[in-house]
Each structure stands twice: as C-alpha cells, then as structure tokens.
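[step 3/7] fold_predict: job queued, chain A
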Amino acid sequence: MTPGNRSRLWRTVLKIAVSAALMFVLLRRTSLTELYAIVKTVDIGVLVVAAVCFLASNILGAVQWHQLLTASGVSLTFSRTFRFYFVGLFFNNFLPANIGGDAVKVYDVSRFGSSIYNVIAVTLLDRLLGIFSLCLLAVVATFWLWNRLGPDPYGYYGVIFIACMLPALGLYFFKPLGNLLRKAILKIRPLSIDERVSSVLDYLGKFKARRQLVARLVGFSLIIQALRVSTHMLVGVALGIDLNTILVIQFFVFIPLLSLAMIPPITINGLGIREGLGVLLFAAAGLGEADAFTLEFLTYIISVSVSLLGLLFFVSRAGRRRGREMEPDAV
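[step 4/7] structure written:
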C-alpha cells in the first residue's frame, strides 16, 4: 500500500470512528424506549410525501446542473445528465467524503469529450449556488425570528450565514478579489496546482458576464433548497410534531446551520454531527431530544433511500459495459 493510500485509509477510519462515537453518545443520552415509541407512531404516508419532496428537489437539482453544463458548452442530453446526477448523489452518500459524488459526476461528463476543468467549474458553481441560496433563505428567516424573539442567538446565526455568502458575492462582483485569489494560487507550483486551478477559475470567470442566467439559477436554487428544508418539516409532521409558525421559520435557520456544519470532512457524510447539532438546535425550540434525533436520522434515511436510484443507474451501466465486453468478436 502506497503512503497516499495508507493516509486516505486512516482518514476514512478516523471519520468512521468520529461518527460512531458521536452516535454512541447521542444514543446513550436518548431513551431507546422513547425512540421506539416515536418510530412506532410515524405516519408512513407523510413520510412517503417527504421522500417525494426530496426526490423532487434532486430532479430540479439535475435540471439546474444541466442548465449550467449547457451554458458552459457541454453537450449532453438531459436523460444522461439526470443519470449522472443521481449516480453522483448515490456516491455522495456512500463515499467517505460527501463531495465524492461530485468527482464521479465530473469523471462521467468529461468522458464525453468536455474539458475536465470546465466540468469541475460547472459542478463547483452548482455547489456554490446551493450554499448561497440556502444561506439567503436562512438570512431572511433569521431576521424574521430576530424581530420576534430577539437577537440572541439569531444575531450570531445571521453573522454566520452572511459570512458564508460574502466570499461568493465578492468573487462575483468585486474583480480585485478574484485577481488576488488567482495570484495566490499561481504561487502553488507542486503537481501543477497553479495551472489546474487557474483553468477552473478561467471557466468560472465566463459566468461573470452572464448575470441574467446566474440570477435565474439563484431563484431556481432557492426553490430546490426550500424543498429540502420542507423535507425535514414533513418528517416532523410524520412524527407528530406540531409545526407552528415560529418552528416552521426556525427550520429555515436550523437546517442551513446543519448543512454548513457537515461541510468539513470530519465524519462519514455528517453522520453524528447532523443528529447531535439537530438535538441542540431543536431542543432550544422546545423539541425533545428523542424527537429531534429521530427527525434528523429519518431525514438522512430518506436522502439515502432516494439516492439508491443512482445505484440502479450505476449498476445498469456497469451491466451494459460487461455485456459489450463479453460479446464475441465479429467474424
């Protein structure tokens, strides 16, 4: 085993250990009897609606990625983009890092002759649009809650969301910031990182002149993120949680906080962080620990279940490839 592979293996083992430790602590703090009682009364019909809501958000996510690919000159049919998107979604859930699926998507698209740096730029922009739109929804919700419940802790949450939005706004609207970033990157010589990242930035730069397209995609992304927050709320309804107006708006603050907390790759796809932070946040909103834990864990199960569609696409593709390899040579 090479040193690089050994290092990746140990990082994966560490992430598994962190996730396992967090889940162990959470389950020790939560009554298993209470968890069983909650799960036993789940409204399966509403849970199915939650899954459909999450599926719809990802179908729209595939549409958004396809629009970005088309705008960047990548020529793919939507059916192919759709399959690649869901294969990436599956690997996002089952690879140790939740961006592993993005690498699979980039590889799949670049096999059809597109520049890998162009596809990386588009996929990165797709991610940034999602984060920006989610934070924008959260900022609006945060200030609504601030006006009704006071600045503590919503003032701190607002600062977090705005801080996450500012780099994207700065790079897009403030040219000197982009130039400064490029100069810093050009100093990174090993492995030609300077040339590679500079190529990605070149492709990203082309979208600066297409403000109508980007504005339209931000609006589109707001719908996608609202559907994903709504998935959590529907799971809450399935658990019998009373969704008053304040709690509904709090979902649009708490879920973005959970999403941001899961970005650092310190656990397996956020497992443990999602549930632990969810317990802390929703407890402040009056939910019991068992309800909050079940809410987030069931939402995670829904996301994994929907991503299995990508597994079907991946297996069928692998099956067709094996079938072609086994065909006898023409006489």
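[step 5/7] annotate
The chain has one domain: 3-313.
The mean pLDDT is 84.
exit 0
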